[in-house]
Design brief:
Radius of gyration: 20 Å
CATH topology of the largest domain: Peroxidase, domain 1
Number of strands: 4
Helix content: 55-70%
Distance between the termini: 32 Å
CATH class of the largest domain: Mainly Alpha
CATH architecture of the largest domain: Orthogonal Bundle
Oligomer: single chain
Largest sheet: 4 strands, mixed
Number of domains: 2
Strand content: 15-25%
């Protein structure tokens, strides 16, 4: 997995720099998301790794599918990825691009698992507390996971904040062993 990130990062950084130069980060975000969905299609994925399917045919197929989503920069990017046999990296490139975009815009995507659903007021207060803790604006994705027993589990980038009862019980078990 880290090898994919290592290969995808230079492409994501280059696209992000181009998006900043042309003030088109949102358009690039949409384009990369669409192209990732195309590449994740089982039939297309089979063609990406097939040496019998030429690079030109692959790039033309993807351009035909995404003709409404691909401007001149995106067309060049697709051709570059195809020529370098990197089309399979598109989902990881899109993910890294979104991380760079979030960092640039001063927010962070946060995954929150909670044992019980938040009330609207509780969710707003929790988001405000996270913003203060992380020093960034947060976009929360909240999911209910009753196996936590109580509390919350927060994932923000590389940072994990485990305030769940399940996590506390696991820590206690480790300490007693």
């Amino acid at each position: 997995m880290s090898e994919l990130a290592t290969l995808a990062r230079p492409y994501a950084v280059a696209v992000f720099k181009r998006a900043k130069e042309t003030s088109s980060a949102t358009r690039w975000s949409d384009t990369l998301s669409f192209l990732s969905a195309v590449i994740n299609n089982a039939e297309i994925k089979a063609l990406v790794g097939n040496p019998r399917f030429s690079k030109d045919k692959l790039s033309q197929l993807i351009l035909d599918i995404g003709k409404d989503k691909a401007d001149a920069d995106a067309v060049n990017f697709i051709k570059l990825l195809t020529a370098n046999n990197r089309m399979g990296l598109l989902p990881k490139i899109a993910q890294i691009f979104e991380e760079l975009k979030a960092e640039s815009e001063g927010y962070i995507d946060v995954s929150v698992q909670t044992a019980f659903p938040f009330s609207k007021e509780g969710e707003q207060k929790f988001a405000a507390a996270l913003e203060k803790t992380l020093n960034k604006k947060v976009h929360m994705n909240v999911a209910v996971d009753q196996s936590l027993i109580g509390g919350v589990l927060v994932r923000a980038g590389d940072r994990v904040i485990d305030g769940s009862i399940r996590g506390q019980l696991q820590n206690l078990r480790k300490a007693l062993q």
